[in-house]
Design a protein that fits this description.
Length: about 475
């Protein structure tokens, strides 16, 4: 650990930030993206299958409720004793039949239509040629017996037959309709005939739910041997477009669910076919979003790191450059507009205080040195003056000695005595000595001084020396 720290101490701050960014931000983001991509395909497939299963379950429930309601209505009409009695009457005139229909039969059928908006129509075909055709009641004539729904229902041994089309009498039959056909039997009917109750259902709400799955999912509503009742017709690979032939499982996810009330709708199914490439495309879209988010985060982090690094680098470079100037005897504080209040700012403030103190110390030491040099100069001047002062007396002393020698040679006795006294006085003055002198030396000095004064003033000056010795 200590070795690693020592190695880091030799790395520049910029490279340290790059290492932190790479190891702490970039590498975890890349690893997270790779791990997410490795697991996302399965999760998307499971979520898609789960979504389709829930959606189909809801559609199947609505389809069951719709068809079961129609079957219940058919059973109620079949069990209506009063209705069978009214239909078993013999009518002498059409007016009597119309009166029964208008006042009794019509209201019973309208009641079911009002309470069930998904029921398009309720029609009872009666095998009685004396009956007249009105809104909900029609005669089962020869022309009607040639229709497909009658042939299918009459040949079915069950009381219920599901006809996957509309039975409405119109030029263009409505789409997305199925008809529940109920055989109505009663021994009271004419010739023990079998009448047929047709309840036509609107599947628009069911188709709208299937169609809301989106373009990425192909949905089909089939019956019988996979005959298509409704579908997108995009992934159907059958040569006959009326039948659904599912594609291979290696390219598509296929989900189907049986719907409808058993046993009448046991062969009805909902198919959902989802292209596997859709998962890849979804994964690619999510990956693009992740990359955008990643790049945004990376860019933001780079901007933040760059800003922090630039702030530190600018001040550190300024401090380093100023330290070099200090090494060249430039003792001035570092002036920055905003040194900051972080550690670097505190360092710059402390550095400026140190430079200020050094500058003050240099000024003090310089003044002391100047004072010291001034004192030394004054001492030198004093010595020079002292030597200069010594030069003049010595010159005079030497001159006096030369005169004394001249006086002695020419027998100027009085003058030579004075010159000798003056010479000894000057010698005494020029000879440094102790602060303490003997009395005889002082007496000799005084005597010579008085002799010189005597020579100077002649007869005007007399003196006498008395020394008392006690």
């Amino acid at each position: 650990m200590s070795m690693l720290l020592r190695l880091l101490d030799n790395v520049s701050i910029r490279r340290k930030f790059i290492m932190v960014y790479t190891i702490g931000i970039l590498v975890p983001i890349v690893i997270g993206a790779v791990v997410w991509i490795s697991f996302t395909s399965r999760e998307i497939r499971q979520n898609t299958v789960h979504y389709l299963d829930q959606s189909f379950e809801k559609t199947a429930g609505n389809f069951n409720l719709l068809t079961q309601t129609a079957i219940n209505v058919a059973n109620q009409i079949n069990a209506d004793v009063t209705l069978r009695q009214d239909l078993s009457r013999e009518f002498s005139t059409p007016v009597e039949h119309y009166e029964i229909y208008w006042f009794f039969l019509r209201n019973r059928f309208n009641m079911y239509l009002v309470s069930n908006p998904d029921i398009a129509s309720i029609t009872l075909y009666i095998d009685d040629t004396n009956f007249i055709n009105v809104d909900h009641f029609r005669v089962l004539d020869d022309l009607t017996k040639q229709k497909e729904w009658y042939i299918l229902a009459s040949s079915d041994t069950s009381d219920f037959t599901i006809y996957p089309h509309s039975t409405a009498i119109s030029v263009t039959p409505p789409q997305n309709r199925i008809t529940i056909i109920r055989k109505v039997r009663s021994p009271d009917f004419l010739n023990n005939a079998v009448n047929y109750l047709l309840i036509e259902l609107k599947l628009d709400r069911i188709i709208s739910e299937l169609n809301s799955e989106g373009e990425s999912i192909d949905t089909y509503l089939t019956y019988g041997d996979n005959r298509i009742f409704w579908g997108t017709q995009l992934t159907n690979t059958s040569t006959d477009p009326q039948f659904l032939h599912t594609p291979s499982d290696d390219k598509y996810f296929i989900l189907y669910k049986s719907i409808g009330t058993s046993p009448y709708f046991s062969d009805w199914k909902i198919y959902g076919i989802f292209d596997r490439n859709q998962i890849n495309r979804r994964q690619l879209v999510v990956l693009v979003y992740i990359l955008l988010i990643t790049l945004s985060m990376a860019g933001l982090s780079v901007f933040i790191i760059w800003s922090v690094l630039n702030s530190m680098r600018y001040r550190l470079l300024a401090l380093s450059s100023h330290i070099k100037k200090v090494g060249e005897n430039y003792f001035e504080p570092l002036e920055l507009k905003n040194p900051g209040k972080d550690e670097i700012g505190w360092l710059i403030i402390a550095f400026n205080k140190m430079i200020t103190n050094i500058n003050e110390l240099i000024n003090v030491v310089y003044k002391l040195e100047m004072q010291k040099k001034s004192m030394e100069i004054e001492n030198i001047r004093a010595k020079y003056k002292y030597l200069q002062a010594q030069v003049d007396p010595h010159f005079l002393f030497n001159t006096l000695n030369a005169i004394l020698v001249f006086c002695v040679k020419n027998n100027y006795t009085e003058l030579s005595s004075v010159i000798s006294s003056l010479s000894k006085l000057l010698k005494r003055l020029l000879t440094p000595g102790n602060d303490f002198i003997t009395v005889s030396e002082e007496f000799d000095f005084i005597e010579k001084y008085l002799a010189i004064e005597k020579f100077r003033f002649g007869g005007k000056f007399e003196y006498e020396i008395n020394i008392s010795l006690k």
